[in-house]
Amino acid sequence: MMSRRVRILLIAVAVIFLVGVAGSFFVWNSPHGQVVQVVQDGRVLYTFDLSSQDDRTIQVEYDGRSNSIQTQDGRIRMLKADCPDHTCIQMGWLNSAVPIVCLPSHLVIQFAPSHDSMDAALR
Length: 123
Hints:
Layout: H1 4-29, E1 35-40, E2 43-49, E3 56-62, E4 65-72, E5 75-81, H2 87-90, E6 100-102, E7 107-111, H3 115-122
Antiparallel strand pairs: 1-2, 1-7, 3-4, 4-5, 6-7
């Protein structure tokens, strides 16, 4: 049978582990600023600062396909897409570190990498 001291130690380790996992999830899902990029085939097509961006819809073409990207009230999303599954539309508004991706159009909407966080990671 386990001693009381070992049980307390195991519980403490489990709690620390769970707090670490929850904290990592929060950091990973939180956007780092309000600057977003629209990228196609690795090339930045547009950069928006959502905090000062007017509401608008832009069209992006690729290989006969068309995508509509909407900025509204400081948010951005894929409004329409000429792709078969519409996964990019179903992702809704960009609100985490997970980008909106339209594979058939080679299109990505993502928060722009922060130079400060990259410098900190390299140090």
